[in-house]
Amino acid sequence: MSMMKTNMLVRSLSTSSTAAQLVKPPVQVFGLEGRYASALYSAGTKSKSLDAVEKELTQFQKSIQTDAKLKEFLINPTLKRNLKVDALKHLASKTSLSATTGNLLGLMAENGRLGKLEAVINAFKIMMAAHRGEVTCEVITAKPLDQAQKQNLEAALKKFLKGNETLQLTATVDPSLIGGMVVSIGDKYVDMSVASKVKKYTELISAAV
């Protein structure tokens, strides 16, 4: 969907009188969740509340995952939108959520998009990781890596990072993998030049394991 729609979301989420100019996130996430997350990132940047918003949404996501009633309330299509808007306004006030987070919940309720809330939160987390210079890398191997192999891999991958970036490495095991390893840096979200460098490097690492 178009930049115009994203700018409309930015205006809706803005808590200040600043012109509805989109502050672009450090990485682009596509789809509806990307548009909401981009608007949220822009609003949070302007109100200097990015860290607070991330913390609040991470906590809210945990609540969704552990509270079946809350989840049902959010995704139930038969409940009227205005009922959800009022309930979430009350929740935001009761739990002292920042205005930016409260605006996001209210806007998604108004637009009937609460079923996508977790996807929006995940997209926002990706943007915040990039904002902090974190590069998330997933390594899948047929056998668990020992500590020395993991350290060697981290050291090798760090060579591809820019000065202000840090590596967030997760290693998983997939016994069905025949030899070598798969290294991925979320192609959907990360600068393709970084992803292609890592793919070339994967072959070298695979030969060494």
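^ that was protein a. below is b, sequence first then the tokens
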Amino acid sequence: MAGRTTLLALLAGAAALADASQGDREPVYRDCVLRCDEWNCSGAGLQHFRSHQPIYMSLAGWTCKDDCKYECMWVTVGLYLREGYKVPQFHGKWPFSRFLFFQEPASAVASFLNGLANLVMLSRYRTSVPASSPMYHTCVAFAWFPDGR
């Protein structure tokens, strides 16, 4: 029984470490996010952030904390590069410069095109398959919710 408990504890510890990327674990990044959150995401700092945040950013759901993570990511990347290290990943992704409110514009375009293709195929399916077919409604439901959400 003690062996199982030890194994579970080791697996839980490994899962906790695997959850974070190199950049996420960096103390400079963590401290920067904490300081930024304290200074900019409450009270007068939050009011200043909101008054200077472009409308398209707020409509896209970017929060003050998201902005802190983004800015601190680049502070950490700058330190890594100055010290001669490779650029680390943050939150499982490589750092990309933000364009408008897209941090990964190519990924956003690919997702949009994927959704468009899904709608085109749904339209073709609905016109060519009779609604009385046994799996018709199931296929339509999967087309509307392709990843289970």
